[in-house]
Structures are given as C-alpha cells and as structure tokens.
Amino acid sequence: MSxxxxxxxxxxxxxxxxxxSLDNEEVIDYSxxxxxxxxxxxxxxxxxxxxxxxxxxxxxxxKKVSVAPEHGYGTIDPEGVTEYPRDTFPDSLKLEVGEPxxxxxxxxxxxxxxxxxxxxxxxMLDFNHPLAGETLHFKVRIAGxxxxxxxxxxxxxxxxxxxxx
Length: 165
Ligand code: ZN
Known about the structure:
Layout: E1 13-21, E2 27-30, E3 37-40, H1 48-54, E4 62-67, E5 81-85, E6 100-104, E7 110-118, E8 122-126, E9 136-146, H2 150-155
Antiparallel strand pairs: 1-2, 1-3, 1-9, 4-9, 5-8, 6-7, 7-8
C-alpha cells in the first residue's frame, strides 16, 4: 500500500457529490446523500467543462466550478427551432407543449426535441438542450476514488452493479 495521495486523473473511477444550480441559484440537480455519482475520469462521461476542473483534486476536497454554456450544454441555436407538418408525427404520438419527444432521423439516429408550439397544421420543435445557454454552477466534493476494472476501462465507462453491458 502506498501512502501517496490519490488525485483525480485520467482512467480513475471518481465518486462525486455534486449540486448543480443556474444563475438564478435554483438547484436543478444533485446527488443523493451517500449516493455520489461514479464516473470514469477522462472519457467525457460527464460535462467536459466540469471534468477538466476536477483533475488533480484529492478525496474530500470541495470546489465550486462554473461552466460556461459552450462547455456545458451549448449555446442556444435559433435555427434549432423548426416547424414540422403535423402529419410528420404518427397519430399515436402524444404531443404536448413543453414535453420532450424522441425522433429518428433518416440515418436511424435517435434524438430528442421539445415541443414548443402546436398548431392545427404544424408543430414547432426545439432541438436545443433545455439547459442550452445556461451557465452551470456546480458545488462538488470528491467522495472517493478507485481503479477501474479492465472491462470498465475497455468500455470507457463505469459499470454499476446490475447494469453491466
Ligand atoms: Zn460497458
């Protein structure tokens, strides 16, 4: 056993306590008490603008990290709002303003959009992430660290018990 202090670095599994708020100080996301987020550092499994600020932190260390929109969920793209004919959508799909829907493009890639307006003949969809344009304010604490398994390392992400793939 080495006494060397472990620091957050690439290829380490990091357990992170976090709280996320926006400019208006509203807390919109947080890890449950004693249930830190576990992620593999260096694989962009978390927001890159946050991940890069965690490098070099020690277990127990706390920090406040602000992430600009361009390093978070992106800036708002006005062209991300698009009008579609109503008959683009199957009758079985329930459309509701403010609700996300999943769609598939012609290449079979699935993606999410938010319904912003519903008209008799058309529907407006917003492809911007709901947090686009927001500066993200994180309060973080490094709760723990461990070496990844070789399988986790080859997959590039953490395997939770019961969620292996
Ligand atoms: Zn996997």
